[in-house]
């Protein structure tokens, strides 16, 4: 039982490791648009759980991210739409 719990915890950690990369990419794309700046000129760093600081082109903003599952009416869409989480990030007021 302990092995199963440990394996499940490790699987969750490995699956979420990709979440960080997706969040950084999402923040970089959003900041590039917000700053009117090329994304390669930006620096993105994690400053807290699901919180990122984007800086570059003389500007800096903090973004909060979270993974959500899309709400889909199965009868209205094709069968190839999965239940993959979607990363959404938004500027914070800090």
Descriptive account of the structure:
A hairpin with a 2-residue loop joins strand 2 (51-56) and strand 3. A four-stranded antiparallel sheet has the order 1-2-3-4, covered by helices on one side. It starts with a helix and ends with a strand. With 94 residues, it is of the alpha+beta class. The model is unreliable at 3-15 (pLDDT under 50). Helix content is 36%, strand content 30%. It is globular. The protein has one domain.
Structural class: alpha+beta
Which strand order does the major sheet show?
1-2-3-4
Please, how many helices?
1
Main sheet characteristics? 4 strands, antiparallel
- Count of distinct structural domains: 1
- Uncertain runs are 3-15
**C-alpha Rg, in Å?**
17 Å
- Give the topology string: H per helix, E per strand: HEEEE
The percent of residues in helical segments reads 25-40%
- Described by the principal axes of the CA atoms, the overall outline is globular
Average pLDDT taken over every residue? 76
Q: Count of DSSP E strands?
A: 4
Percent range for β-strand residues: 25-35%
Determine the N-to-C terminus distance: 44 Å
């Amino acid at each position: 039982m302990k092995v199963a719990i440990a394996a499940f915890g490790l699987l969750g950690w490995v699956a979420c490791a990709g979440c960080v990369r997706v969040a950084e990419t999402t923040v970089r794309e959003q900041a590039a648009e917000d700053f009117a700046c090329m994304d390669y000129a930006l620096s993105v760093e994690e400053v807290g759980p699901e919180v990122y600081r984007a800086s570059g082109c003389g500007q800096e903003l903090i973004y909060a991210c979270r993974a959500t599952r899309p709400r889909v009416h199965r009868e209205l869409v094709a069968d190839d739409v999965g239940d993959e989480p979607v990363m959404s990030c938004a500027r914070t007021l800090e």
